[in-house]
Specification:
mainly alpha, two-stranded antiparallel sheet, 12 helices, globular
């Protein structure tokens, strides 16, 4: 293959297209080879686990075929799995607990008692199942949204534009959820899509946003009894949410409410401040070239590619 053609076909945007094509082909094959596996709903444990495995296969194949990289070189370093996921989990749990606390202070959250469970199950079993299911959901959505879409867009158009576009796509991806409105789509884009991308940019580790996403869903629904993106998944608390929709999020849940928007946005801004301080912002070479020409100068120097930010050791 001529070098110029290869360079065009393996540029970031084409790579994104080829990777999404791999996902389509694998899904098409599975629907014909194992239709029972593909029949599981996304909100069931089996469906979430299937999605997580498929996302990892697509992510790994796309990296190897089009970039000659391993997952460990693109945010999934095995040695960072436990510490980064744990940090993310603590951050996500604290964030949703703070959101729920603000709603309670405003009189828009009340615990009514224990959640009603389906017959034939126990609270411990169901909570364990939901914990694993939401871990799978976090892996799937972060590999697709941040590992594939955001990462390729960032290489093509830079960190800031990639964050805006991928966050918008993330919000639109929740548009068909129960109780969704345009307000909930914008809220998810700002407070979650941008926040999770910022967490990745600050650390260059996908494990941190996976942990945040995991705890976000787990604490919002099974722990505090809220709707999770319009889905009712109560395990521990049974709660009510009196008050205006702009606070409670209405039929979509607290994710579409003002407390979640404010706190999620503030946390995203904090992550971006860390990313800037660590020099983790990507500006493609063509942007440097354009900026230099607009100033009537030569192209600006290109910053080195960001590397995973490792927190300093503690005593």
């Amino acid at each position: 293959m001529p070098p110029l053609l290869r360079r065009i076909l393996l540029a970031p945007i084409p790579r994104l297209i080829w990777t999404l094509a791999i996902a389509f082909v694998l899904g098409w094959l599975l629907r014909r080879i194992a239709p029972s596996i593909m029949a599981y709903p996304n909100v069931a444990f089996a469906g979430a686990a299937r999605n997580a495995v498929l996302a990892f296969v697509v992510f790994a194949l796309g990296l190897w075929l089009f970039e000659r990289k391993l997952p460990s070189q693109a945010g999934l370093a095995p040695w960072r799995a436990v510490p980064d996921t744990f940090r993310g989990f603590v951050i996500g749990a604290a964030l949703l607990t703070a959101v729920t606390g603000l709603l309670a202070l405003a009189g828009s959250y009340r615990i009514l008692g224990w959640a009603v469970l389906p017959e034939g199950t126990s609270r411990a079993y169901l909570f364990g199942k939901m914990t694993l299911m939401f871990l799978a959901v976090g892996i799937f959505e972060e590999l697709v949204s941040r590992g594939i879409i955001f990462r390729q867009l960032e290489q093509a158009i830079g960190t800031w534009l990639a964050m805006a576009i991928s966050a918008l796509l993330f919000g639109l991806g929740h548009r068909n959820n129960p109780g969704a409105t345009w307000v909930s789509s914008v809220a998810i884009a700002v407070e979650a899509g941008a926040l999770l991308a910022a967490a990745y940019v600050a650390t260059r580790s996908l494990w941190l946003p996976i942990g945040i996403h995991w705890a976000w869903n787990l604490f919002e629904g099974p722990v505090w009894g809220s709707l999770v993106s319009g889905n009712e998944i109560g395990v521990l608390a049974r709660a009510s949410f009196p008050g205006p929709t702009f606070l409670t999020g209405g039929g979509f849940g607290p994710e579409a409410g003002l407390p979640a928007i404010v706190l999620g946005t503030a946390l995203g801004v904090a992550f971006m401040a860390v990313a800037i301080r660590r020099n983790q912002i990507v500006t493609p070479q063509w942007m440097h070239w354009v900026a230099g020409r607009l100033r009537g100068q030569g192209p600006e120097p290109v910053a080195p590619e960001p590397t995973p930010a490792v927190p300093p050791p503690t005593a």
